[in-house]
Amino acid sequence: MKLGVNTVLFGGYDVKTAVEHIAFSGYDGLELASIAGMAEHLTDTATDQDLTEIRKMAEEAELDLYCIEAATDILQPENRERTKRVFERAAKLGIPMVTTGSSGASDDEAETEASLRAIEELAGAAQDAGIRYALKLHYGQSIYNTKTALRLMKEVRNPALGLNVDATHVGRVGDDPVEAIDALQDHIIHTHIRDTFIEQLKIAPPEYQIAGRGSVPLKDVVDKMVETKYDGAVVLEIIGANAYSLPKAAAIAAESRGYLGRLFEESMERKDVAR
């Protein structure tokens, strides 16, 4: 399994610091945060020289570049244009995909239709750039559960489009995360993972997003990913740690790596024994 970290965990530090500490924590790769107002380790105006430096950092750290998270309100035309510029930079970096949420409001048909059209536009732009667009199911947004995700994949037919599933979002809207992975397995191209108190609507503070410290059924989620032969990246996404000291942020990454690594190893061993 390909385990990575979204650099948003190190949002209070530069990209070089993030890369060094992700590598030291034992991960295989990373996801670059390009989230305006939160963490911009890759900007939409990054020059070719900037991209060369990022690629060199990753290569020297022996980390793969899995994805870019460019979370934004895609219903705003200027934000879609920004996202398209991120697509172009992902392609130059050799990063295979970019992920965003759908924006809009859950169960609002007018906003859902607007989200579908925005996603369709961005999927086309991703295809033109030669990358994929991983739409994240997100609590409170138009595409937020199994039903709306299946609707999206039925109505927006573009080979560049796939899904990014995060059990903490799917679980908080009332879907069983394991059943969601099973139902959506043919469309999942990327995965975010973390812990939280899934029975609460708000994501817990960073120390409870550490894998194994909350109530997300991570063992069952991992077992289902292994069962369905998911072969994409699994990226730890911890939000809210921008003001944390570097040792604390690194400890969050390291503890989660140990827990998730063990879950995947044990799940794959059980699968081998069952054959």
UniProtKB/TrEMBL annotation:
The keyword Calcium does not apply. Keywords: Isomerase. Residues 22-257 form the Xylose isomerase-like TIM barrel domain. The keyword Isomerase applies. GO terms for molecular function: isomerase activity. Signal peptide: none annotated. Pfam families: AP_endonuc_2 (PF01261). InterPro entries: IolE/XylAMocC-like, Xyl_isomerase-like_sf, Xyl_isomerase-like_TIM-brl. It comes from the Bacteria. This is Sugar phosphate isomerase/epimerase.
